[in-house]
Design a protein that fits this description.
By secondary structure, the chain is of the alpha/beta class. 27% of the residues lie in helices and 18% in strands. It contains 14 helices and 20 strands. It has helices spanning 2-12, 21-24, 34-37, 60-65, 67-71, 161-166, 184-201, 219-226, 239-242, 255-265, 272-285, 311-323, 363-381, 479-487, and strands at residues 29-32, 77-80, 84-86, 102-107, 116-121, 125-128, 169-170, 175-178, 205-208, 229-232, 251-252, 329-331, 391-395, 399-404, 411-416, 425-429, 439-442, 447-450, 457-461, 467-473. The strands form five sheets. It has a seven-stranded parallel beta sheet. Helix 9 (239-242) links the parallel strand 10 and strand 11. The radius of gyration is 23 Å and the shape is globular.
Amino acid sequence: MELALLLFLFLFNLVALAASPAEWRSRMIYQVLTDRFAQTDGSTTAPCNAGDGVYCGGTWQGIINRLDYIQDMGFTAIWISPITQNIPQSTTDGEAYHGYWQAKTPVFMGLIADKFLMVDIVVNDFAWAGNPTAVDYTAFTPFNSASYFHTYCPTDYNENQTSVEDCWMGDSIVALADVDTTKSGVINTYYAWIESLVSTYGIDGLRLDAANHVQQSFWPGFNSASGVYCVGEVDDGDIDYTCPYQNYLDGVLNYPLYFPLTAAFSSTTGSISSLVSTINQIKSTCKNTTLLAPFLENHDNPRFPSLTPDLSLAQNAIAFALLADGIPILYEGQEQHYNGSDVPYNREAIWPSGYATTTTTAPLYTFVAQINQLRNQAINKSPDYLDYMAYPIYDDSSTIAMRKGFDGTQIVGVFSNLGAEGASYSLTLPDSGYTSGEVAVEILSCANVTVDASGDVAVAMGQGLPKVEVEVFKGQSDRAGVWSKAKAS
């Protein structure tokens, strides 16, 4: 199995890049739950009922075989689920197909050629298939004694940070023994292990599971020992709670944005004003918004289409997340408009979709590819695009317009929550940075508009679809070049 991991990593990264946070900023991440993405034999008919919570047969080789599916959407990095050895038991809570019930840190895995590889890492706990009061610690590696763990207590999530850090998650079926990361032996072992793991397998970045369940003082040394970009999971929408973790790690998943973003676009009555307020507060509170990781879905939260089947609302929410400050993440299946609700139903296999890629069979696949191409073009045209913090230039009860990029290279996105039944109308945008007489191109509808004498841009809205103004030119002679670049795959 370790040879398989080595092969996977070799094919994924022909050169170990050990990518820095600065190098990650231009990347776009596709999140893969390895067991659910692709089978080695390429099957699209193998059964997989997400509700059963058992292994379905996805493999690293399957990922390798389907890299073109990911690459053709414009993604430049892949995040795979944990690679350590998990408990083997089948329990009434299901099996460890997801990779988060680790029992041994020695790698139980195999690579993929110009993409960054991010690996999910579990530091906080080790899994035991049974009651938390009956754990056999000798089953764990390398922490094979109770002395390495906190004494059992159930986690109290009600604003009790000591309990969050010191007590156990899990239940009486699968207990998650909480590692005491204040002990010098644990600290030294983990730091040495992550340094070796990253260098041995050419890993470029790490996603750190349940980062807020580990003492903050543990993380700077771990981040440094890894030598790569580390983004922590702090599953909390409180900006004042989540942002300070950037003092200990390079970045965090942008849960403070996730909650108001989902609320704003999952309903035609969603609050745009709350989203605007959150954006401004994140910018003023978080240490570096360019190293946050915005997302709309993941394996722990209900899929967006489980909240609304409206395709226009999904397009607005997806585009907003992909064009937000930071390093955007798309969870496998979003591009197929999967609608699984909560765990485990949001962990569907991708292969029954047939990996559809056409506008008629998978409209979100082609839509995501367009948005990613726009972001890639903006970065290639002006690297300082990444330094510019996006901000709202317009909002009303159903619309928010965002600008990102300095004059001449800016992207202006207009996002609506009116839904597919939304009426057609013209929206006048101020503060776009465009000047009178210039022509702004709306890339998604292939339309263009001349900026008026006041510098305002009239955007034709309809059917609740997002609009993205991305190019400016002085005369019609430039138009062919604009479109040939924008349409390139």
